[in-house]
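Forum > Structural Biology > Help requests

Title: Can anyone predict the 3D structure of Integrative conjugative element protein, RAQPRD family?

Hi all, first post here. I have the sequence for Integrative conjugative element protein, RAQPRD family but no way to get a structure on my laptop. I'd be grateful if someone could post the structure tokens.
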Amino acid sequence: MQRCQLSSRPLRVLLVLSLFSLPVMASAAEKDELALALRQLDQVQSALERAKIVAVQDKSDGRFFFDYERATRDLKTMKQGIETYLEPSRAQPRDKGSLVGQYRKEQP
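Reply #1:
Sure, ran it for you. Structure tokens for Integrative conjugative element protein, RAQPRD family below:
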């Protein structure tokens, strides 16, 4: 019986050490996913810029149009938030501004 307890001790130590490393691994995975989100936001911004060029060329006389400037500001806000989380410099007050979410405007 004594011999069985001695052989399981290294396993217990390994188990305890692996539990302490889980938050670090999760953090690395989270950072990878957030970096991917940043790249995707860059792609969305590029798509918005292309769509804006097409919209200007089409010159539709519709009553409503997409508010590209507001969407771009919201994308920048999201990117800044992710970048600040990934590389925090120091504690700073939060921006009270929020995403608008409404991108349809009426023609003047």
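The two ends are 86 Å apart (CA to CA). The chain has one domain: 29-106.
Shout if anything looks off.
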